Amino acid sequence: LGLSAGLDRANRLVNQLLILARLEAQADDADGPVDVANIARDCLAAYSREAKPKSIRLAYRGPDHVPVAGAGHALESIVGNLVGNAVRYGEPGGQVVVRIDPDDAGAFALSVCDDGPGIPAEQRARLFERFRRGSQPGATGSGLGLAIVASAARQFGARIDVGEGIGGKGVCFTVSWSARDLARSANRA
Hints:
Elements: H1 2-24, E1 33-35, H2 36-46, H3 48-51, E2 57-61, E3 67-69, H4 72-89, E4 95-102, E5 108-114, H5 145-156, E6 159-164, E7 171-177, H6 179-188
Helix pairs in contact: 1-5, 2-4, 4-5
């Protein structure tokens, strides 16, 4: 079991390093429109098995469809890493909510919020550094997830805000895109 877990961690680290390199090279090969709502629901479904033993409830709140031109891989990286961290660091019986708030101009904000232990304000400035991990006991991972989120957000010209989570507990990451930045990233893809 120890060898299998070690191989899984090594495989995850290599995959995260490859994703980070790809994002930094802006080599996203998605050329058609993607549906951010579908990406959010798919990521929640992918983490449901990991959330189940901890009785963490996963939820999506937003429109049925949020079409965006290109860069599906970057969007999957953002949502997947934020949801994965929320589940991994979440407390038993907690919840993780992915919310998408589009506006009439074609911009949108995507939030991943939880009611877990949260992140102290003094640690938030360095959250997006490579190999930086949470300080909770038993924390696992390579410390690359939020660096990947930041790189993917830069690809879109998106802004990331970190705030309080559900009910004043936990943490909430909000990634916001303007319509202009989305159009610019679609032209690069």
